[in-house]
Design brief:
By secondary structure, the protein is α+β, with helices and mostly antiparallel strands. The protein contains eleven helices and eleven strands.
Amino acid sequence: MRRSVFTRLLVVAVLIALCSIAATAWLATQLTRASIAREQGRELASDHKIYTTLLTYAAGHRDWSEVDGYVDGLVSEQPGRRIALVTKDGRTVADLGEGGGQLPDRASAVVDPLAVDPVLVPGAPADRIDKRVLGPFRTPIDFRDREDRTGALFCLRLVRKEQARLDCRERDLPFDTAADFFALLDLEDLVNACLARRSLPPVDLDPDFTPADKQSSGVPPPDQPAVAACVAASRKEQLAPYVAPPVLLYLSNPTGPPTAAISLPGNGWRVMGAAAAVLLAAIGVAAVAGARITRPLRALTAAATHMSGGSEIPPVPVRGQDEIAVLTRAFNTMAANRAHLERARKAMVGDVAHELRTPLSNIRGWLEAAEDGVSDLDPALVALLLKEALVLQHVVDDLQDLAVADTGSLRLTLERLNVAGALEQLQAAHEVRASQARVTLTASADPALTVRADALRLRQILDNLVSNALRHVPAGGSVTVGGAAGDGEVVITVSDTGPGISEDDLPHVFDRFWRADKSRSRSTGGSGLGLAIVRKLAEAHGGTVDVTSATGAGTTFRVRLPELS
């Protein structure tokens, strides 16, 4: 499918625009995403520091009475931030920082060491209890012996349940270990109360708060999820008196929400650089596309410049199927026709010079001989001079007829002519010459056949064809002229039994100054313009003329004229 230059330019422009828009959108998205992530990272880091600081305070204090010093230090490190702590019943514990007024609708976090926020503290335990909260325990769980290796804990458990009267060697246990064991026994009481509410049997715990392998009751421990849930709830109940109560943390910025106005610090040069890269890429694509489009135009311009100087040029290469390719083909055709016409013009000038040179040379030679006294200017010489002058006149008249026909100035007087009558006059005019050449000339047509034509020009057409036939038919041959109607036209044929025309010469019979006799002998040919005049006159009537011939089989000319309606 052929695409126009405009379509190609439009497609290139659309592609460049789409690529530019896509690149700009991608760049803006990436930069904005990076900036948002960076700003959110800064805010998250700031919030994490505030949260962990307050969480540390809550894990080491039983209330919030001394938190102002901590909050004041955080505010000084976070200029522009407002930090407010409010209990769940709405009592304000602390409110420091720039600005004031109403607090945000939603709290940023809940500060509770027994329910650590895993978002702000990614390493929070599974039960969300801060490991720094020990309560009645003395040893952190990470440093605690996780199994009852000495059996002291099991002994204490039996004694507590009054199932045995044993010393359990309490005085031999380190103070921290003994405290941990008794705290664990208190935790077991809370856990077993929880399990009882769920209709589950009691459980003995190891120091790591998991069911012991050896249960004092001899009954296997209940399912692990139920025990884990009761352990977590019981631990929070046991540790609650040792930590500050939960409070709501409000963080705000008096200049506006921290994430609402995101700036792009340091991205200006990146944006400018990326935009410049996109612009350069667009310019490069446009330059390549423009070069592909203008290259054939430059080739056409160069070829036209050379042709205007009169030089012959090779055909311009044709690429594609667009308007430029069509223009290039038309230019190549024009250049080829111009070269052909130039060759024809040069050949015609040479042919005219050749046709005029011979009679002029004869006239000059005879006149010089008479002037020098070599020959007398007798009637015979005058007759020769007149004959050569007639030849010159015939050539000049033929050239004038062709010139008038070429310019479209040939005037025809069209009238209704009877074809049979015109052929009878033609036969009468050439009968004597045919008899002298011992050639049989016949002419016939339907008496009712008529044609609209110029009588003088039609006679000129037929005279040229018959004269040409009589000139080439040898003695004993024949020339037949006939007329017939068919397909809305009148066809007049002139057939002879001459030697015929070779296949190579047949395309040139209507060329000017062409003759089958390459020697241009006056005995076998005229000026070489007769058949060219026949074609021009037939075309002036709105008709055509063609020829068929074969060597040794004769020649037939057909003149086709519009039939009179």
